[in-house]
Write a structure and sequence with these properties.
The protein has 247 residues and is of the alpha/beta class. It contains eight helices and ten strands. It has one domain: Rossmann fold, CATH 3.40.50.300. The two termini are 30 Å apart. It binds adenosine-5'-diphosphate and magnesium ion.
Length: 247
């Protein structure tokens, strides 16, 4: 399993890391203060959420409530101002910077609203990108990327450029790229936000399938119909958890 490498040497073993057995990820007392030119802004005001392995969690809330901020902090992209993120026993921002990059690669697959594909690379090459800094041969990387494209039903489009794909297909390529390192956690920030209703629902089905196959999936969505299909919905309001409902 991909999770082994940084885990053993980075686990602190301190008492506060001894969370419940099924807890994969915990957000503990997280605040985020943005320094702006005029005044600062407190985007997260103290968020505590604990997520179990295999959960399918939706994060909802109005624009500006802090959803993207929370997801970036969770994914190891931006440190919180206060509090910590513990994933699989690892206090991720206590890691040295280089290990934080290893953490992201091994644990997190990130999917964005705006696909973020390289326009001059084929679907296959886009999916291979996260592998290029690992020590793998070209044929290994191709094989892994093809497997990943197959999981999203796009093996027949491997040679196509993003511009030759529909929006839904581009998002599938982005999902394949997120999956290629076999990370146990998928974070998706409004992944259906740029897609029409039907295409968005299809992409959502894909996340549902990944969750059924064992992935822990955290998805930000404005769409109540979609969020009602997850096992749990956390609603943010002005940087605080307004409700946390398990179904
Ligand atoms: N880099 C930044 N600098 C200053 N303020 C920011 C920055 N990023 C986000 N914010 C502010 O923080 C709040 C939460 O933003 P965000 O997390 O993007 O919310 P959401 O994803 O729920 O729409 C917003 O008021 C936003 O304007
Ligand atoms: Mg956002």
């Amino acid at each position: 399993m991909a999770t082994a490498t940084i885990h053993e040497d980075m686990k602190t073993g301190k008492p506060q890391d001894m969370t419940a057995e099924d807890t994969l990820l915990s957000i503990e007392g997280v605040t985020k203060h943005y320094n702006t030119k005029s005044t600062g802004f407190l985007a997260l005001k103290g968020v505590d959420i604990s997520v179990e392995k295999g959960e399918f969690l939706a994060i909802t809330g109005e624009s500006g409530s802090g959803k993207s901020t929370l997801l970036s902090i969770l994914g190891g992209i931006a440190p919180p101002t206060e509090g910590r993120i513990v994933v699989d026993g690892i206090d991720i921002y206590a890691l040295p910077i280089e290990s934080q990059a290893d953490f992201r690669r091994e644990y997190i697959g990130f999917v964005f609203q705006q696909f973020h594909l390289m326009p001059y690379l084929s679907a296959l090459e886009n999916v291979m990108l996260p592998l290029t800094i690992t020590k793998r041969t070209d044929s290994e990387m191709r094989e892994m990327a093809l497997d990943s494209l197959e999981r999203v039903g796009l093996s027949d489009k491997a040679a196509n450029l993003p511009s030759e794909l529909s929006g839904g297909q581009q998002q599938r390529v982005a999902i394949a790229r997120a999956l290629v390192n076999a990370p146990p956690i998928i974070l998706a920030d409004e992944p259906t936000g740029n897609l029409d209703t039907k295409t968005g629902a299809d992409v959502f089905d894909l996340f549902e399938g990944l969750n059924r196959a064992g992935e822990t999936v955290i998805i930000v969505t404005h769409n109540p119909e979609l969020s009602s299909r997850t096992g749990r919905t956390v609603r943010l309001l002005d940087g605080l958890v307004e409700s946390d409902i398990k179904r």
